[in-house]
Amino acid sequence: MYPTRQPSAKELAERAENLIQNSPNRYLTTVRIAFRAKQRRFDDFEGLLEESNIKPVQRAIIELSDEQPDALLLND
């Protein structure tokens, strides 16, 4: 699935920057990250996700940046 290791600050910043740069609306991207992080936080509380050292916001940024190329291909 997604890595359980803690991403470096540089890697995380680059992914977040790419997400925002490639999105047509920064606000909606920020809201999408926050919503995904909230979902992951509740999944962690319910025990649906395996133990992870990655914080929900970091995991949301990683997931959305991994999904971004797929979304860009669909929009073209």
Automatic annotation (TrEMBL):
HAMAP family xref list: RNApol_bact_RpoZ
Query: What are its E.C. numbers?
Result: 2.7.7.6
Recorded hits in Pfam families, A to Z, give: RNA_pol_Rpb6 (PF01192)
Is the keyword Glycosyltransferase assigned to this protein?
no
Q: How does it assemble?
A: In cyanobacteria the RNAP catalytic core is composed of 2 alpha, 1 beta, 1 beta', 1 gamma and 1 omega subunit. When a sigma factor is associated with the core the holoenzyme is formed, which can initiate transcription.
Could you give a GO molecular-function term held by this entry?
Answer: DNA binding
Q: What is the lineage of its organism?
A: Bacteria, Bacillati, Cyanobacteriota, Cyanophyceae, Oscillatoriophycideae
Which reaction does this chain catalyze? RNA(n) + a ribonucleoside 5'-triphosphate = RNA(n+1) + diphosphate
The protein's name in its UniProt record: DNA-directed RNA polymerase subunit omega
